[in-house]
Amino acid sequence: MKSITSLLQEPAGLRFNGAALAYAFGGYALGWYGLFHTSLAVNLAATLLLAHSMTIAAYLIHECGHNLVFRKQQHNTRLGRALSWLSGSSYGTYEDIRYKHFRHHVDNADVVWFDYERFFREHPRVLALTRVLEWFYIPAHDLIMHGVMMFGAFIIPQRHSQRLRNAIVIVVRWSIFFAVLAVSPKAALLYVLAYLLMMTILRFMDSIQHDYTYDLTLFEPGKAPRKGNFEWEQEHTFSNPQSFRHELPNWFTLNFGFHNAHHADTAVPWYRLPAKHRELFGDSPENVVPLSAQLKIFHRQRVRRVMDNHGEETPSGRAYLAAARRAEVFGGNAASFLTSF
Fold first, then answer.
1. Structurally, how many domains does the chain consist of?
2. I need a labelling partner for 264 at 20 to 30 A (CA). Which of 56, 187, 227, 283 fits?
3. pLDDT beneath 70: ranges in the chain
4. Are residues 32 and 132 in the same domain?
């Protein structure tokens, strides 16, 4: 019988990924339990715990997608599929999520199918409502994207073969949700709040990690003029850690903020990214966007970045990094690796 460490990508993963997985699954279970508690204080703590455990589950899906948890792809796939149920991304397949994310790395582009800017232009009332909700910090733009994901096999022609699976997942997940709603409307509402918090964390991190415009070639591979251009990729990729001086705060998002290091070497697991960043880019904080600037961008541009957030006047490359450090960029929306279109 093989030892657990022999199945892992590296022995250190037992400690780091083991702790992250225990937190994701344990926090998810404990969070749900706390939603039904009679104490409002416990309800609040449980909502935050549930939101963060789903966030960690999402980032572990990212690790699985890069085969950084187990040695064999099949084991990473099984774990990634299980984690997708925790993070609410199980409506689409794990394989489709992984494929789209790898296109992002290989093509050096935000490769998508859904042209959301065209959708907004064709539905101005939806755009207006989205902007109002975004002003109130409700991630309406991402809710639209997740709504498309929920019914993806019925909306996207290339995914029609997945309609039966998609329908089963919809029935299962929504049956559970309506059962919770019938038993405890408060618990159901708090779950929705936790999910919105997870979405907010993910898009906060994604918002300024690239200055790419989105590319409508998900089902048209081969149209990638910057494919393999490492220098261009690094110039248009930006790191936004929670803290550059202290390592522990970055565990809040499994070091996802060290994004240049991740794009430089996708075989480096999350717990080695800070060291990889310093190996490649040194100890200068000038190479990252500070948290204070990230928060200002997120707050000030929450409505503006819904549409046309990469116009000709927008700086790019190192100029974008300098502007982001001054909180003078819009950032982007709806680029989550959890969506597969």
1. 2
2. 56
3. 1-2, 310-313
4. no
